[in-house]
Amino acid sequence: MTAGTAFCGRRTDNRKGITVIAIDRNITEKFRAVSDELLENEPMSAHTSFKIGGPADMFVSVKSAGEAAALIRLARENDVPYMIMGNGSNMLVGDRGIRGLVIQIGKKLAGSEVDGSGVRAGAGILMSRLAMVAAKAGLSGFEPLSGIPGTLGGALFMNAGAYGGEIGDTVVSVTYLDDSGELHTISREECGFGYRHSVFSGGGKYIVSARLALSPGSEAEIRDKMAEYSRRRNEKQPLSQPSAGSTFKRPEGSFAGKLIQDAGLMGFGIGGAAVSEKHAGFVVNRGGATAEDVLRLIEHIQKAVEDRFGVRLEPEVRFVGER
User: Fold this and answer.
1) Given a cut of 60, is residue 240 above it in pLDDT?
2) Which residues contact 90 (CB under 8 A, 6 or more apart)?
3) Nearest-CA neighbor of 48 among 2, 7, 97?
4) What single-letter DSSP state applies at residue 247?
5) How many CA atoms lie within 13 A of 214 on its CB side?
6) How many CA atoms, within 13 angstroms, populate the side-chain half-sphere of residue 108?
7) Other CB atoms closer than 10 Å to residue 323's CB: what's the count?
8) Three-class HEC string of 62-119
9) Torsion angle in degrees (nearest 10) through CA of 55, 60, 65, 67
10) Diameter of the chain measured on Cα atoms
11) Which of 38, 73, 276, 280 can pair with 181 through a Cys bridge, CB separation 3.0 to 4.6 Å?
12) Residue 146: which H helix or E strand, with range?
C-alpha cells in the first residue's frame, strides 16, 4: 500500500463502535468516474474467507486491467493509499479496516483460454475453476492445486502449494501492473518462486494474468485425482468454518500443526477465534471473531510452541489494515 491520507478525516460511527472515514467528495467522485461500482466504507468481512475485517474507505472490484491501472494512477496522483487483493482467502483485515482504496482483482478478471497444452487465465479466476478448465481440456499437472482456496493471482503471489505441488511449477509467464499502472510480462525464472514466496510478495507488482504449461492426460484420470485430493482435504481440514487456510508456514524439519497439537493447543480459543479441533494448523472463526482475537491467538500459539520446542512459527496469513 502506498502512503498518503490527506484525502479524508476520521469520524466514529457510534452505532457500530468502529471508526470509519469521511471521504472528500471531490476525491470520491474522481474515482467514481473511473468505476461506477465504487463502494464506500465497505466491510471487508464480506470479502475475506475469515469473515473478519473493518471497513475499507473505498472498494472496487475491477472489470479490467485497464480499469485497475487507471485507479492506481489516480490514487497516486491524489496521494490516496491503495491496496490490491484477490479473493481474500489468505488475509486477516484489522478491525479498524483499511484506509484508502482497495482494488479487488476478482471474478470480473477471471477469463481463461486453452492453447494446446497451455492455459492463459486472468488473475481473478478461482483455483478450483482453473482446475476444472484444465481437466475438461485433458491437461494434467494442476490436480494437487485444485482445492487451494482463492484466486490464481493470490496463489502466484505466495507460490501456494499442496500435496507436493506448487503453482510456480506450472508457470510460463506472468503479467502484472506496477505502481505507475504500466503492464509488464516476466518469465517464470524472473518470478523468484520459493516456499510461499515470489517476487510479487514484496509489493509493487500486481498480477493480472498468467500463462501456465501443463501436460496432456486423460480427463477421467485427472478428475479422479482431483476427487481424491478433495476427499483428503475434506477429511483433514476444517472447511466448514471460516479461516484463512494454514495459519503458519511449515517450519524446517517439522509441521506447524503437529507442533501446535503437541503443545496442547488443539481447540484452544481466544474470543471467537480458536485452534481447529480438526487440524491444529488452522485458526478458525468459530463465531464473532475479531481480528484482535486472531492476532492474540497467533501470538499465544507462537509463544507456547517456542517455549516448548524452541521453534518460532512464522504466520502464513497476511495481516492488512489497522489493528
Assistant:
1) yes
2) 49, 150, 154, 158, 244, 245, 316, 317, 318
3) 97
4) S
5) 32
6) 14
7) 11
8) CCCHHHHHHHHHHHHHCCCCEEEECCCCCEEECCCCEEEEEEECCHHHCCEEEECCEE
9) -130
10) 59
11) 73
12) none
- For 116: left if phi > 0, alpha if psi spans -120 to 50, otherwise beta; the answer is left
Write down the pLDDT at residue 3: 33
Dist CA 189 CA 213 (whole Å) = 14
Q: Which residues are catalytic?
A: 196, 246, 316
Q: What is the pLDDT of residues 11-24, one digit of tens each?
A: 444 434 554 555 67
> Going by C-beta distance under 8 Å and a sequence separation of 6 or more, which residues neighbour residue 316?
90, 158, 196, 245, 246, 247, 248, 249
Beta-bridged to residue 212, according to DSSP, are 119, 171
Q: What is the DSSP letter of 244?
A: -
> Distance between CA atoms of 276 and 76, rounded to whole angstroms?
41
Model pTM?
0.88
Residue type, 207: I
* Cα dihedral 137, 123, 60, 95 sign: positive
